[in-house]
User: Which sequence fits this backbone?
């Protein structure tokens, strides 16, 4: 089981601006479950590496999209 929960952002000033969700699960090996599901349904997670020379531009773009 994997669930997302929207928790109140008490004492965490980043929750609201970042539109954060908390994810919890009862699985020990989440990576194995994700890999098994990707074989059936396609890619679920994507990792993107941003070169440090693009950091300022990337942060400006993200700020326009909501997360800061």
Assistant:
């Amino acid at each position: 089981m994997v669930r997302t929960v929207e928790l109140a952002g008490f004492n965490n000033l980043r929750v609201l601006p970042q539109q954060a969700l908390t994810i919890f699960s009862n699985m020990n090996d989440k990576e194995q479950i994700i890999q098994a599901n990707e074989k059936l349904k396609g890619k679920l997670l994507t990792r993107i590496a941003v070169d440090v020379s693009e950091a300022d531009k990337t942060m400006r773009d993200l700020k326009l999209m909501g997360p800061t």
Strands lie at 2-5, 22-25. The chain has one domain: 2-65. The mean pLDDT is 78. The first helix runs from residue 15 to 18.
